[in-house]
Amino acid sequence: MKVVILCGGKGTRLREETEFRPKPMVPIGQRPILWHIMKTYAHYGHKDFILCLGYKGEMIKDYFRNYLWQTCDVTLMLGHSPAIQYHGSHGEEDWTVTLADTGEDSMTAFRVKQIERYIPKEEGFLLTYGDGLATIDINASIAAHKASGKACTISAVHPAGRFGSLRMNNNGAIHAFSEKPQFEEAYVNGGYMVCSPRLFTYLPNDPGAMLEQAPMSNLVRDGQLNAYKHEGFWQPMDTYQEAQYLNKLWAEQRAPWKVW
């Protein structure tokens, strides 16, 4: 399945970093958080990526265009016939990365709508945000989605209460979606979604449309939103303090998301 990652937001709550780079390029250790997210999907066998670019998207393009330059030793042959020789290999040689410009100021629903042309007809896809790390079993979430028969499955997690909260019954069917949860005990939208092609019918052709608002509400209305409950590690990177926390886990070799 193709993996769609939302990489275009301005990350205003992380201004210490995002003034200079897009949020998915904020480093955890020596690699951007986007790389860590992609490595998680690749671990489960999903290596065909579509990145929805926006704010400072050229930096993400530059990163992948120069990936060999950044990850390998290099020998330069100078003179009238210059050449470059790269030494060694890396674990990402079988990745495919589509870099799609989805607009500087577009909202999330419109970004996803614009990459519909890159998803084969009648094929489902994976979708997440470019700023959260988790130990979610991607293939288990796909199995749960297929069993539900619904248009979209969200990974439901238990963090602090400021993200889209979900209310569901025991079999995972969602019957309420709130963009701002009222209590920390609620499950919240952790991203790491599995989507059927039917999701595109819920996305308006409107740059101001947010996936987390009308589309989610309409999915709930039609009984088409499902949940995969994840009780393990999940950590967003919305603030500088959260970025520092993730870097601390990585530096101390305690990063629970490192499954590769």
What does it look like?
With 260 residues, the protein is of the alpha/beta class. It is built from eight helices and 16 strands. The protein has helices spanning 15-18, 33-43, 57-65, 67-71, 108-114, 138-148, 214-221, 240-251, and strands at 2-7, 27-28, 31-32, 48-53, 73-77, 83-87, 96-101, 125-129, 132-134, 152-157, 165-168, 174-178, 187-189, 193-195, 225-229, 234-236. The strands form four sheets. Strands 1, 4, 7, 8, 10, 11, 12, 13, 14 and 15 form a ten-stranded mixed sheet that branches. It has a two-stranded antiparallel ribbon with strand order 2-3. The chain has a two-stranded antiparallel sheet with strand order 5-6. Strand 11 and strand 12 form a beta hairpin. The chain starts with a strand and ends in a 9-residue tail after the last helix. The relative contact order is 0.18.
Strand content: 25-35%
User: Quick one: biggest sheet?
Assistant: 10 strands, mixed
Distance between the termini: 19 Å
Any idea what the radius of gyration is?
Answer: 19 Å
Shape summary: globular
Class based on secondary structure composition and strand pairing = alpha/beta
Helix-strand sequence:
EHEEHEHHEEEHEEHEEEEEHEEH
What would the average pLDDT be, to the nearest integer?
93
The percentage helix is 25-40%
Total beta-strand segments: 16
Q: How large is the count of helical segments?
A: 8
Contiguous runs where pLDDT drops below 50 for at least 5 residues: none
